[in-house]
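Quick one:
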Amino acid sequence: MYWKEMLGAISRIDKNAPVYELSTDYKYEGLQEYPRPQLQRNTYINLNGKWNYRIISGQGKVVQKGIIEVPFSPETTLSGVEKHVLQPDETLEYIKVFGLDKVKKTKHLILHFGAVDQVSQVSINGINLGTHEGGYTAFSYDITDFIVDGENEIKIRVRDYTDGVGYARGKQSISPCGMWYSAQSGIWQTVWMEWVPEAYVTKLKITPDIDNNRLDLVLSVSELKGQVSISAANQELIKDYSVDKIQDDKIYVHVILNHYKLWTPEDPNIYFLNIEYGKDTFSTYFTMRHFGVGVDERGFPCLTLNHKPYFMHGVLDQGYYPESLMTPPSDAAMINDIESIKSLGFNMIRKHCKIEPMRWYFHCDRIGMIVWQDIINGGTKYDMKMICHIPTVVRPFGNTKDKNKLFLRFTGRNTEKSKAVWRHECKEMIEQLYSVPCIGQWCLFNEGWGQFDAKACLEYAKQFDSTRPIDAASGWFHEGCGDVFSEHLYFEKLKVNHGPRPYVISEYGGFSLKVGNHVRRDAVYGYKKYSQGKDLQSAYDEIMKKIKSLREEGLAGAVYTQATDIEDEVNGLFTYDRKVQKLY
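Output:
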């Protein structure tokens, strides 16, 4: 079901007005949808809802307690908590009691977390299951040996150091201001369970191969004990399939396809499969597409989709909501954002400083939206003057190769432990999102935030995904590597910087307009400020005309800043509450 059917059509204040209101009446509905569309079973137990919580000071004193609505962080309105910004020395503790009529002796119960920010320790019935580090990726535990008939207790203890240790944090700040936003902590994506047989698929890796009309699958399994069976609703889709090899608890399968259509934003063809492994049964989906780099008919380096030159024009999207920060308040809210962006003529979203719930990517796949995905920035505190303010205005400093070593001392990534944290989180992020069809490019570092050894990091990332282009450094400090050459141009004349790699303007625009009471605070942050909608529209039209002309000069892709207002930033195409569209 598409968002217009769920939310109603857009209603304009005035046909010719540059600012108009939207009908976005989506409401929080408990986030009950299955959170992992590419490995979906029918034994789904959703644990979102009311949990008990406590906040414990560094001295061991309980400073706040009560009921919290999971998966919303205590810093958000939808959590139901009197807002509390978790401090680095505090512990956020969750408790959930759930009942089981009878423990299934021949099956396993897996407890899943979509994301918990930043470091979490999980126990069941007083037994420690383990610790997960990193606030943006999913993790799970087999709790079969620790559950009992009747009531069971989950306890989670969370610490959030924000920028104190080096973990990924995106735009979160304990003291939000300007382009830094409110920090949040704890559980912020769906918590759920599922029953599985003793031998089951733990992970699924999907690689489309359009050159050989083939889909390659890697099934990671709990134990090698079962046969693989694959079917599709359209029986003509699959010509044949075979197991290529079995190695290290992984089963490699080739699926030869018959009559299929390629995926593009204009024609987002998506296909569903049913897979059986012994007694384990689940559904998944895939598309047939290929992202790469090449040379167009004029001799310009370009980005390609399905081996053809394809201009990717997108918006920067950071996925924040006033009532729930990084957690989308509903499935409909995610769909609304994607469809609204596409309705303005964009075919790509740069998902900036955040990983979304997996359902967001599924909606991009089926709606038809390419995603450039950031590896979430982290590290300790940045010297913004040295790595951002000076290079933004005085570009030669940022682009001069022999100056990079000087500036990269200030990126908050100067210890081996912090670098190891980046490598661990980068691997988890790429592996979690690898099979998502819409992801057309990775971005390792943004404007030097947490950047180090970009060339070595590029080689490291390609170990986990060599099928997509990688932007090693978006903005400046390029270090002479990456599949594209990527610049941010806010205060300079837009132009094409010709070279051997596709040239993309990975951020431009940033035009700001404060709209009535559709703001979070009185502060106004943006790169160019307007007080009238008509003036903003004129500037937007002019810069879009320029982007169009640069395509003729070899521009391979561009990203307008940004999709929505966020707190102090009022440079969105839409207001923070999604009630007003400023541009058309």
